[in-house]
Amino acid sequence: MDMRSLGKTGPRVSALGLGCMGMSGMYGPSDRAESVATIHAALDAGVTLLDTGDFYGMGHNELLLAEALKGVARDRYQVSVKFGALRDPAGNWSGFDGRPAAVKTFLAYTLNRLGLDHIDVYRPARLDPNVPIEDTVGAIADMVKAGYVRHIGLSEMGSETIRRAAAVHPIVDLQVEYAVITRGIEASVLPTCRELGIGITAYGVLSRGLLGGHWTKDQGKAAGDFRGHSPRFQGGNLDRNLELVEALRAVAEAKGASVAQIAIGWALSRGSDIVPLVGARRRDRLAESLGALDLDLSADDLAAIERAVPPGAAAGDRYAAPQMAMLDSERG
């Protein structure tokens, strides 16, 4: 497994990380035994970075990880945890909480659910508009001093917020959506992170399965999960985006690769400071994703990908309007 550093102050992690969100209902039902087997297969393949959130399945995902990691040597993996998203008993989203006391409470529950004595990278899932980022990061910094957290990360933050956070404590990485079909961070956020020596853990590299190469128009109509409300999976937007997938498929077939492998390979090619997260829920999908590590994309290949999916070609925003409004990263 190739290794990359999370920023200039962070740990060495596998070049691909495993995003575990989809194992806890965000994309429809999943099989618990297959989820655990997939985590084990990732570890056996040399994947060290496991990403979760305390609000994924309202704690289900952390408990699942705890089950999968039981008996696994602690030096074989790093756990990245997002916190702060609020949900009600029906699963509805109700805002974000970045208050210092809440930060420490969230962490205490996470440590208990995971059965760990420390978290490798701890990060607010979104910016709480009612709490200065300095206060939120300062509370995590207290937990670093106390030994409960090793490193501090951010998620979906804009350049100004990133700078303010980094002035309080070193930030190792920004977790943010980044894919050949989602390139908004290239204007400001990515240059800011590179200036400050902050790495990127890129989620959504397959755009919620759209770039997996297996999605159909009928699936878009029937989606009862997140994608049923995502603008990119709606009506004419989906038609347009599936055309982009087919253009990408032509590039993939010329390389003897799958669409997913080309999309992941593109993300890997954007810099050694970028660690893509793959959201495989099954071992076969994991194996396909790991195959991207063996791709050798030439300058001509990358140019062909750019022609197939030019910047800004995607139809529809990456989230519905209410969620887009909560993304500090969209402010640049």
Automatic annotation (TrEMBL):
Residues 16-308 form the NADP-dependent oxidoreductase domain. The keyword Oxidoreductase applies. GO terms for molecular function: oxidoreductase activity. InterPro entries: Aldo-Keto_reductase, NAD(P)_OxRdtase_dom_sf, NADP_OxRdtase_dom. It comes from the Bacteria. Keywords: Oxidoreductase. GO terms for cellular component: cytoplasm. The keyword Chaperone does not apply. This is Aldo/keto reductase. It comes from Azospirillum doebereinerae. The lineage of its organism: Bacteria, Pseudomonadati, Pseudomonadota, Alphaproteobacteria, Rhodospirillales.
